[in-house]
Amino acid sequence: MKKNFCRLGHLQWMAFSSLLVSGMAIGQMRTISGTVTQNGQPLSSVSVFQEGATAVTMTNASGRYQIQVSGQNPVLIFKHPDYPEQKINIGNLTSISVAMDRRERQIEEVVLNAGYYKVREKESTGSIAKVSAKDIANQPVTNVLSAAQGRLSGVNITQNSGVAGGGYQIEIRGRNSLRTMATSGVDGNQPLYIVDGVPIGGEVASQYSGSAIAGGSMNPLNSIAPNDIESLEILKDADATAIYGSRGANGVVLITTKKGRSGKLGLSFNSSYAMSRIISNLEMMNTEQYLNMRRQAYAKGGVTTYPATAYDVNGTWDPQRYTNWNKTLIGNMATASNTQLSLNGGNGDTTFLISYGHNEQATVYSKDFKYSTDNISSNLAHRSKDRRFSLNVSNLFTIQKNNMINEDVTRQSYLLAPNAPALYNEDGSLNWANNSFTNPVAAYNATYSNENIQYLNNMSADYEVVKNLKVKLNAGINYQTFEEWSLRPNTIYNPAFVTGQSSAYSQAYKYNQQRFSYILEPQVNWFFEKGRHRVDILAGMTYQDDVTKQGSMRGTGFESNIFIQNIAAAQTKVINDQVTTEYRYTAVFGRINYQWDKKYIVNITGRRDGSSRFGPNNKFANFGAVGAAWIFSNERWLKDSEWLSFGKLRGSLGTSGSDNIGDYQYLDTFAVSSTSIYNGVTGIIPSRLFNPDFSWEKTTKLEAALELGFLKNRINLTAAWYRNRSTNQLVGYQLPALTGFTSVNANLDATVQNTGLELELNARPFTKGSFKWETGFNISFPKNKLIDFPGLAGSTYANMYVIGEPISIVKLYHLEGINPQTGQYRFTDFNGDGKITSPDDRQVIENIGVRYFGGWTNQLQYKNLSLSFLFQFVKQKARNYNSVMTSPGLMNNLPVEALNVWSPDNPDGFYMPYQSTANASHTLLQSSDASVSDASFIRLKNVQLSYRIPLGSSSVFREVRLYIQGQNLLTITNYFGVDPETGSSSFLPPLKTYAFGVQFNL
User: Could you give the count of Cα atoms lying within 13 Å of 588 in the half-sphere of its Cβ?
Assistant: First the structure.
């Protein structure tokens, strides 16, 4: 019995012990509740979870939450994408309320995307500029680059025109390459664009949009809705770009799309409506001024009876009629609508986001042309319970459709005589005014259209094999199909002439391109930390394959314009080359980051690249960089400083390259020649010479920077100096005529240098209470110079470049004034031969580049009312209206500045006396230093006023926000031309836009 009793006692003791342990565990499990606020108002959608646990809860519309915690000394974490993360030691508390402040984000909490890795801004050794979703959302734009203008130091972004779906010129710390679209057909200064880890290529290739869209340029980021973007980061220096090797010389543009959030299912709806008009300060002559000019021109030539074709002054056209053609042709109101709907949610392990956006934008032309985009994006992120495996999948599907006028009429709107006849007859038909008038709106019958479909997929998976050792695979697909049509029916011509009488003179052009690329990037990452030492090592490889198929055709002569889009129905059909190109790229890369005592940081990156674009002798090249930083504010003698919150000195040195030259440039290629026909067989002719040594352009980058934070980081200052030298320039090398070729693609020892100083100042003057104010200022002083070009004097490039000068110069004649004896322009005869000829007398050098640029941003908030605005400024010179102005006195309207004509009574007059015929002296004026002037401007780039409606706890909405936005609202400039930003009078300038909208969050 004793034995049995003992056994029973053991069982009872075990049961008692189990109950005791369970009771203790249950005792440690407790419920914590509270409220999260911001500026005294409830804050919803805040993630609340215990550190180390998987359970996540979200605050409701009243800002309240409730969560269970366990264990000893639990820590509660509060996270929201717009506010700094907060960690609270719970202790014995059961109720915790937290106030989150949007403005109190510290430098060490800002995380930057460097592409293959992420780094806290405090610990970064490189130069990375960032624009957040908050800044992007403030602007009524269709391309995120518009939102970045004026916000980033060292990054100069220019919108090419006001046409929707057009292009942007982006220069990251200057122009490194001598290759331009004009000289080589490829812009060698384009950055690398990467969306969620997938390269998306450069600008869309177009053959028939050049007269409709400035430069035929269509930016690749047009396919991504700004509302889908979480952040835009631009990598600038060697430390940041060298890991991208041969593709990082001109900088890297990284786009990160939005991801789902854990917690309660969230639905967001955002809709806006916008109205736009052109902006231009160029004032043209009215009818009285114009007719006086024309009459003086004929009087000077001794003409008393006006020619029959001088319709404007011979009485054919009404001399009392006045039309502001600029307002009539391109001054209409362009409307736009944008709708965005997104759904997101998830738990602590899995999150998702699905978004749909639709945008429509009309044009300022009087006909119903339209640009539209439809975007569907999604993201799925999963992390295993043990946190060792994670998977992230993003998809983006976009359809862009653009239907517009075949040829921009901006230039025509400035040239047309102010007393020209009405555009339409009383019956609504086109008015040709008895064949005295080339009706500009007849051009509306010719259309240019394109459809661009893109699918982008990224999959990223990583697994922690052992503690701190991760393997990762980044993979992506980019599929794009592009089709464009240029239709020119006979109805664009006057029906009184044969070309306008029959569809036999109608023309149709079609071009299509299909591109498929994929990328695979396996990586391994090891992290080690012990004591004061921390090491982060990354190694990986890249393989990318890109296949492009393209072809074009044209048809002339149709039985009816109904068949104009069926080229098979054309009487004459021309099928151009159907081309397939393949680009292959491979690389291995690595990074070693070492930190000691959170004060000293060294970052080493390297990459070995191989590209199919180079000759067999130089297919591979090595690139690398070293960056270092000293966080001196962590030194003992400064650690407790009351005035200095943060101080870092950093620098970098390294190389990156460029293979942005097009495919097969090193091969000896042939072209089909329609003129080389023998016995009915079409021949081919050689088009390019073989160069097995065709190699990489290399850019060596050097940077030094100082970062300071004062008064608990309420004031932050960054100053950076850089010097980039680009060598081994890929240009056409001149050959003797006996070779049968004018040049061969080769590497020259020409060296282009970019230096500059960048300053950024950010401050938060008011951070507490109901009123908050955050302001930022940035300014950049870039300087470009050609420092070496062997054999320049004897080459055709001698007319374009001068050693010691920027590569953006133009060589011009020097205008001395008006010769009072002849009434003609007088130019400097530099070679003294008695003639003004090129190139000997084009000796004046003008730099039409940027001297400095920057922006001033402000964000103010009073309770639920918020105001933000951005001023952009640029100091530069550009070609002015004199460079395109027709000879004064001809049958073309002119700016009012042309009224300042020289005469004995007005000896200070700028323009020579009017003449009714073209004048060779005026042609010289167009290429003189009078055609270049100051094009500096200050522009109120963006304004947003928003109001968040206070909602009660019973509301079904988490947030309702009303907003008004403005873009390009005010421009201050003395520029003599249509627009100082574009410097062009042939295409629409950027538009002034007003928008209003509403956002609902459920």
Answer: 3
Report residue 199 as tokens. 């390269």
* Structure token digits, residue 693: 């040594």
Question: CA 162 to CA 277: how far, in whole Å?
Answer: 9
Q: Which of 82, 71, 81 is nearest to 32 (CA)?
A: 71
Largest alpha-carbon pair distance within the chain? 144
pLDDT at residue 168, as a whole number = 93
Which residues, other chains included, contact 799 with Cβ-Cβ below 8 Å and sequence gap of 6+? 811, 838, 839, 842
- Cα separation, 588 vs 709, in Å, equals 37
Q: How many CB atoms are closer than 10 A to CB 48?
A: 25
Task: Tell me phi and psi for residue 109, to 5 degrees.
Answer: -90, -15
Position 102 scores a pLDDT of 57
Query: C-alpha distances in angstroms, 963 versus 176, 229, 271, 468?
Result: 41, 19, 10, 46
Distance between CA 151 and CA 147 in Å, rounded?
A: 8
Q: How far apart are CA 570 and CA 568, in angstroms?
A: 6
CA angle 473, 474, 475 (to 5 degrees): 115
CA end-to-end distance (rounded Å), the chain: 70
Quote the tokens at residue 544: 């990318």
pLDDT at residue number 23: 41
Residue 106: the pLDDT is: 55
User: What CA–CA distance (Å, rounded) separates 359 from 156?
Assistant: 27
What pLDDT was estimated at residue 742? 72
Assigned token pair, 936: 């500096």
Looking at residue 282, the DSSP 8-state letter turns out to be P
Task: Report which residue type is found at 766.
Answer: F
DSSP letters along 599-647, please? TEEEEEEEEEEEETTS-TTSSEEEEEEEEEEE-GGGSHHHHT-SSEEEE
Residue 760 vs residues 205, 713, 718: alpha-carbon distances, Å: 36, 14, 5
Angle (CA) 176-150-713 rounded to 5° is: 105
Residues whose CB is less than 8 angstroms from the CB of residue 495 and which lie 6 or more positions away in sequence, other chains included: 432, 501
Burial 30-40 (b: 16+ CB within 10 A, else e): eebebbbbbbe
Phi-psi region for residue 433, left (φ > 0), alpha (ψ -120 to 50) or beta?
Answer: left
**Nearest CA to 259 among 181, 199, 345, 326?**
345
d(CA 841, CA 898): 26
The torsion region of residue 121 among left (phi > 0), alpha (psi -120 to 50) and beta comes to alpha
Contact present, 753 and 784 (Cβ < 8 Å): yes
- Residue 740 pLDDT: 75
The enclosing H or E element of 498 equals none
pTM of the model as a whole: 0.89
Supply 833's token pair: 């031969």
What is the pLDDT, as a whole number, of residue 14? 43
The DSSP bridge pattern shows strands 771-788 and 850-862 to be antiparallel
What's the rounded Cα separation, in Å, for the pair 535 and 79? Answer: 28
- Spacing of C-alpha 856 from chain mean position: 19
Residue 679 has phi, psi (to 5 degrees) of 55, 40
Ranges of residues in the chain whose predicted pLDDT is under 50: 1-27, 103-104
Evaluate whether 307 touches 326 at the Cβ level (below 8 Å): no
User: What's the pLDDT at 81?
Assistant: 66
